[in-house]
Specification:
The complex is a heterodimer of chains A (74) and B (377). Chain A contains 3 helices and no strands. With 74 residues, chain A is mainly α. Chain A has one domain. In chain B, helix 6 crosses helix 12. The chains are: A mainly alpha (74), B alpha/beta (377).
Chain lengths: 74, 377
Amino acid sequence: MPEITSRRPLEETGADPVVERVIGARAGLTALLSEAEQARRLREEAADPADGAVCAWNHFENIPTFYNWNNRPR
Amino acid sequence: MVVRRRQFTGMRGIAPVPAYVVMQPTTLCNLDCAYCYLPFRGEDRRMPVGVAAAVAQPVNRWARDGRFSVVWHGGEPLATGREHFAALLAPFEPAVEHHVQTNATLIDDAWCEFFATHRIRVSVSVDGPRERNADRVTRGGRPAYDRIVRGVEALRRHGIGFSALCVVSDPTPARASELYAYFLDLGCDVLGINIEETEGINTRGNAHPEDDVTGFWAALVAAWRRDPRIHLREVEWSLRYTRAVLDGEADSVLPRQLDPIPTIAHDGSVVLLSPELAGFRDARYGDFSSGNVLATPLPEIIAGAATTRWVAEFLDGVEACRVSCPYFGFCGGAHAANRYFEHGRFDTTETDHCRNSKIRLLEGVLRHARDHQPSPA
């Protein structure tokens, strides 16, 4: 399924194609999200909160080098 | 099913208080990577302690109100030397968290002790196995890989957890599993994948076939899923968005306002929103700076951000993304540096970086999910 390449102003279409695609993948995503949650718990248990590279495993925005989706340093 | 679109409400205007500041202790880097965007990386222009002290004033205040970090970014920050680095750290109160993004080549036992003493969190730049690091070379043009690995070994010897940033120049499905296996072996806690960008003085083109890039991200999700010990930045963000969508909370993901991300250059000049623009000049936009902390307090510079010509134009660009791009709720708008270095302006929209690192990332995660639906019981 190709990515959405139309750049018509979205008000014209009224639809939200990306949200539709996410919802369309619900079954696979739900399984993946569940496994990711379990993986986060295991990483949290393994991490040393004082010395780890991550400040807070359940809150990854607290990794400043990686933070800022809108424009992270790189 | 047709889902009616709501306009996403995040990313409106610039927040008055950042989450962190980026500091450039020196312009110098001991490496000369082919894709690097930084000018002046052959010159050792060091940050005076007075600049750090001026930044520390508001930062110490912000850190009392909540978590706040300083990211020491280069050049190569360790090229500053421990003595001067310690002098730059001194004005900051203990509550401030410090992070360093390093090429690792200078890390030895003494640096590891320095990191422990000053509680500095470390992120290493390495592009995967030896043969994938051909672009990472010394000033003499020799491969830097062995020196990078020696630095990482020192971190491991001292039990210092670290993150890794990896630049990928040829995103394909085959590359993804190779890279993830490498970083599992390297022992990093966190991994960020940066598909190479055309920016700064790196003018190499960065358009790739859609299917290659989407396939790269899908394969990376598959590799990660088999052994998810590493916190993989791009996967975590994508899953956070998809979970919000499935929960009917898609508009909750983006920050309400843009973080100003002040980058403090070695001389105290401040470039907002885009560290990659520091050190550049343009006939239309000048030097991209919004002031200098030696003359104006940082909070005042941030408060006046929209009076900087390019920043105002960029805010128009974010609004253009909001109304035109179906991926805005996931992305938050094309990054400033990519707009400028790809299009020459800030009020344009979709970039190659958007396609490679946002759109095809989400599509890759969705492709993986569609291809891995649970079997009926």
